[in-house]
Amino acid sequence: MQVIRLLIQIGILCIFFEVGKWCSSFFQLPIPGSIIGMLFLFLLLLTGVVKERLLLDGSGFFLRHFSFFFLPLAVSAMILGPYFMEYGWKLLFILIVSGVIGFISTALSAERLIKWKEKRKHGHSH
Q1: Which residues are CB-contacts of 72 (< 8 A; sequence separation ≥ 6)?
Q2: What is the rounded radius of gyration, in angstroms, for the C-alpha atoms of the chain?
């Protein structure tokens, strides 16, 4: 039963991905479909249309196996060694800067979300 629930949740996440790809293609947007799909999911989670427990197991599966999904990227990086020797410093700089920006924005948004939930929780209890 748990496997079926996991597959359904992964399927729902894939539907958001496909809807985002379709929107990106149909409206000829310069934004990748995966990002649009994540934004749709975020908005539905934020508004409460989709409850986070509905996708908890599926998203947990992806997070637990995150490194596996980057394995092809690592293999490609090894094959493109000469390219990295010439342009690697630029790539490293971009990766470090974007990583720091990602960490900071994630930390700030998580902190605000926690404060918002605590404020909302205390507002309902009084």
Answers
A1: none
A2: 19
pTM of the model: 0.57
Chain segment 57-80, per-residue pLDDT in tens: 998 888 888 777 766 666 776 777
Q: CA 101: distance to chain centroid?
A: 15
Count Cβ atoms within 10 A of the Cβ of residue 54 and give its class: 0-12 exposed, 13-18 middle, 19 or more buried. Answer: middle
Cα 90 to Cα 92: distance, rounded to the nearest angstrom: 5
Left if phi > 0, otherwise alpha if psi is -120 to 50, otherwise beta: which for 48? left
Is 42:50 a contact under the CB 8 Å cutoff? no
Among 56, 48, 64, 51, which Cα is nearest to 8's?
56
Task: Give the three-class secondary structure for 70.
Answer: coil
